[in-house]
């Protein structure tokens, strides 16, 4: 048995959730916090867990914190619906939790874009803090790009989490519409209205950083497309922050 409480936040994830749940069937408990999905998400989840809670959407950070709060075990693993735990990672987690050690662990993450594992562009190894003692961590309350704040020592695991993000360009564009609006709100809140520099120079720098400094060109056409799309996302979040207050 995987000695952790796995927490997953969902909203219309019937395309992804079955494989995510299948990858953690050996967990001590699986907790779902769903924002009233209108597709088959809940029905799929019922086949894997009875710990399903529905809550109006309050933002990524607050939804994930709710899921963590429901956890009964001392160790929590956050999993997104488009992520998969490999057997090797499961064995490694079981091993490190069987003996004294850090209060949390960073997991390397293999990110797939249009079906290809992106090995450069700043996307690998993409260490992310997902495994932690419940009483030693919380989710930072941000509009977007929420993260776990650990009040203790962190270690690093070796085996990767699989992340099947942006299966199509349409996927990226849909998520960009949402993420850029949230990022714009965060920018306005922290920095006020952005100026011409942010709107013009930062998108160009995003492309240069991903494609050249982080060797995105070694990812071929996928790397080029990814750098262009993230440059567009950078432009969009700043121009939306400039457009109006939130």
Task: Report on the biggest sheet.
Answer: 7 strands, mixed
Averaging pLDDT over every residue, what do you get?
96
Instruction: State the end-to-end distance.
Output: 46 Å
User: Can you identify the CATH class of the largest domain?
Assistant: Alpha Beta
Strand order of the largest sheet: 3-2-1-4-9-6-12
CATH-defined superfamily of the largest domain: Spore Coat Polysaccharide Biosynthesis Protein SpsA, Chain A
Radius of gyration: 19 Å
Number of strands: 13
Q: Any low-confidence stretches, pLDDT <50, length ≥5? A: none
Structural class, by secondary structure, is alpha/beta
Task: Give a verbal description of the structure.
The N and C termini lie far apart (46 Å). The mean pLDDT is 96. This protein has two domains: 2-164, Spore Coat Polysaccharide Biosynthesis Protein SpsA, Chain A (Alpha-Beta Complex); 169-243, no CATH class. Strands 3-2-1-4-9-6-12 form a seven-stranded mixed beta sheet. Helix 2 (41-46) links the parallel strand 2 and strand 3 (52-54). It is an alpha/beta fold and 246 residues long. It has helices at 17-22, 41-46, 60-70, 87-96, 169-191, 196-213, 220-243, and strands at residues 2-10, 27-34, 52-54, 75-78, 83-84, 104-107, 109-113, 116-117, 128-133, 137-139, 148-150, 154-156, 161-164. The longest helix has 24 residues, at 220-243.
How would you summarize what this structure contains?
The chain has 246 residues and is an alpha/beta fold.
């Amino acid at each position: 048995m995987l000695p952790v409480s796995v927490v997953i936040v969902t909203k219309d994830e019937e395309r992804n959730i079955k494989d995510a749940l299948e990858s953690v069937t050996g967990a001590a408990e699986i907790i779902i916090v769903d924002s009233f999905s209108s597709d088959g998400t809940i029905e799929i989840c019922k086949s894997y867990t009875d710990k399903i809670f529905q809550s109006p959407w309050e933002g990524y950070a607050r939804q994930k914190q709710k899921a963590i709060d429901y956890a009964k075990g001392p160790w929590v693993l956050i999993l997104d619906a488009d992520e998969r735990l490999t057997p090797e990672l499961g064995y490694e987690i079981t091993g490190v939790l069987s003996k004294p050690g850090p209060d949390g662990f960073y997991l390397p993450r293999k990110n797939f874009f249009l079906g290809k594992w992106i090995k450069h562009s700043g996307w690998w190894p993409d260490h992310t803090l997902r495994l932690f003692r419940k009483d030693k961590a919380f989710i930072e309350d941000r509009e977007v790009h929420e993260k776990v704040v650990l009040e203790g020592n962190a270690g690093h695991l070796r085996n990767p989490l699989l992340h099947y993000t942006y299966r199509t360009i349409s996927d990226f564009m849909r998520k960009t519409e949402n993420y850029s609006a949230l990022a714009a709100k965060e920018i306005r809140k922290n920095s006020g209205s952005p100026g011409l520099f942010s709107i013009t120079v930062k998108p160009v720098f995003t492309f240069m950083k991903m494609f050249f400094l982080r060797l995105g060109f070694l990812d071929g056409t996928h790397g080029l497309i990814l750098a262009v799309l993230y440059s567009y996302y950078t432009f969009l979040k700043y121009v939306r922050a400039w457009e109006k207050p939130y």
